[in-house]
Response regulator transcription factor
Amino acid sequence: MPDPTPPGPTTASTPAPTSATPIRILLADDHALVRRGVRLILDREPDLEVVAEAGDGAEAIEAARSQEIDLAVLDIAMPRLTGLQATRELVALKPGLRILMLTMHDNEQYLFQALKAGACGYVLKSVADRDLVAACRAAMRNEPFLYPGAVTALIRNYLDRVRHGEEDPDQLLTPREEEVLKLVAEGHSSKEIAEILFISVKTVHRHRANLLHKLGLHDRLELTRYAIRAGLIEP
């Protein structure tokens, strides 16, 4: 990983948040020199603070149990528990925790496994001094961060699935799920949705859970934003 460069001006695309409370970061890598270099990159930013370090995935989980953290930056290849295994454990332990994978592997298989495990970003160590700070801020805005090659891999994988009939781009949601989504976005309660669609409240809850899972979203606000982007309701 290249040596950290002196801090430059904050770019317009990734401005430092104005919040007085820094983002609390757990950094896990089995190489102490790598952790030191990454920590220098992060700690020089006023809105980022490394509050815990770990030498493997198991230590990362223990650190997350004992300390309040907002973001975990994990290497993929670590002893005892890998970064991928630790990600799955951390997602279950702290559902609101954001997780970034920091790795030397420009590898599609690792990329897909990381995203499936629950990571919201994938950063290469070779360009960590350029990308990591922006990735941390994107993660805390609940936005994905992928390097350009990763974006290309995801698009290629998606198009392959479409060609093989494994993914119908026009049928991500069922008609009923789309109806529920529109009503949720319009602010209706579960009881009101049940009455409008002549289904049970329990069924409404099941459809809403399916929507969140399919779309990779977390709450009503994010469902509403999606409905606006999909043209189901007007902003």
User: Anything to note?
Assistant: The CA atoms of residues 164 and 213 lie 23 Å apart. Residues 1-13 have pLDDT under 50 and may be disordered.
